[in-house]
Amino acid sequence: VLADANVERRRAGMEIIGWDKALDALGATEVDADPNPQIGTLLRCDLPDAPGSQFLRVRCATNREFVLPVPTDVRTALAANAWTYNLDPQQLRLMQARS
What we know:
Blueprint: H1 7-17, H2 19-25, E1 29-33, E2 41-47, E3 50-59, E4 65-70, H3 77-84, H4 89-98
Antiparallel strand pairs: 1-2, 2-3, 3-4
Helix pairs in contact: 1-2, 3-4
């Protein structure tokens, strides 16, 4: 799946395989986890062409799970999630507290 040049086919393939199996096969390690699954878990693994890649595993309000690529310089799940919205982590935490 990872060898496919088409990004959408890679994404679909990873969903078909299942993120848990795919991340296990890649040897993903947990960097940080927030108690709120909507904030998520920050993971790191070595992809064939991108060693040290980081991903945020997050659950949306519809209870679907997503895995999103995030920059390698983020250190917490909260910072990774905030990055996806171009927010400061504390802004995101305040938004989460209100819901």
